Amino acid sequence: MKNTHQVYLISDSTGETLDRIFMALKAQFSNFNYELNQFSFTRTENQISTILKDAKNKDSPIILYTVVNSKLAKFLSEEANKKQIPCFGVLGDLILNFSKILNQKATHQPSAQHVLDEDYYKRIEAIQFTMNHDDGNNTENILESDIILIGVSRTSKTPTSIYLANKGLKTSNIPLVNDMSIPKEVIKSSTICIIGLTTEAERLYDIRRNRLNSLKENEASDYTSLEKIRDEIDQSRKIFKQNKWPIIDVTRKSVEETAASIIKIFEIKNKNA
């Protein structure tokens, strides 16, 4: 029987940062069995002592923490060491090294990344804009977009748009039925970053079939015809090339990977503007 580790994620804030780091970490190990124990807003020695007491009574405990208060982080590290529990600070060394490089003291303020600054309001505005311009809706002020995504149905336009909006980028997406489905002002625009999304026909066929099955609609139609799907994709590529829009193939790409490619194109376009 494989050993199951008790992983303790201890954060002095929401724990969102630590959770993402752990998700990335565990993806590197295929045979990692664990149970997760998460503790957010941990800001006193008493809280830490209670958590460590629990961890000591478990088999194979491992502690990961993001505690920016150096005194509290030291207490956690020393007490875990006394109990012989592996304990790793995720941000400690990073903050210290940045402090040296920048020649300034860190604030050591929990939740500092959630301060309601200009970037926060920019992100909220981008999310609202993107939700209002999803799936070809509300094209009146579409030229206010930072990015416009165009593609046939089920090419991850909406989730990618929302991901980009969370990065502060106003993103519109337009479903491509034919060249007439794209607003003329979009075709004429040379300043906005417009990107075509495409995928392999067989992959799109599977996605659409699963979509209809989930809706309990099994009637055959052009929507799930492999031949028609191939025609759609070929036609979309012609439109993208005709307008000299960058093309991203989203086949087997995660939303994050697609968004990273889009951001890179966006930055290059802005740099050359």
Q: What integer value in Å does the Rg equal? A: 24 Å
Which strand order spans the largest sheet, edge to edge or round the barrel?
2-1-3-4
* CATH fold title of the largest domain: Rossmann fold
Q: What class would the helix/strand composition place it in? A: alpha/beta
CATH architecture of the largest domain: 3-Layer(aba) Sandwich
* Spans where pLDDT lies below 50 across 5 or more residues: none
CATH class of the largest domain: Alpha Beta
For the biggest sheet, the summary is: 4 strands, parallel
Q: Tell me the number of helical segments per DSSP (H or I, 4 or more residues long).
A: 10
**Secondary-structure element pattern, one letter each:** EHEHEHEHHEHEHEHHEH
Overall mean pLDDT: 86
Basic shape: elongated
Proportion of residues in helical segments: 40-55%
Fraction of residues in β-strands: 15-25%
Number of strands: 8
Number of domains: 2
Description:
The protein is an alpha/beta fold. It has 2 domains: 4-114, 3-Layer(aba) Sandwich (Rossmann fold); 118-272, 3-Layer(aba) Sandwich (Rossmann fold). It is 46% helix and 16% strand. It contains 10 helices and 8 strands. The protein has a 4-stranded parallel beta sheet, sandwiched between helices. Helix 6 (157-165) crosses helix 10 (255-272) and helix 8 (201-214) crosses helix 9. The chain is elongated, with a radius of gyration of 24 Å. The mean pLDDT is 86.
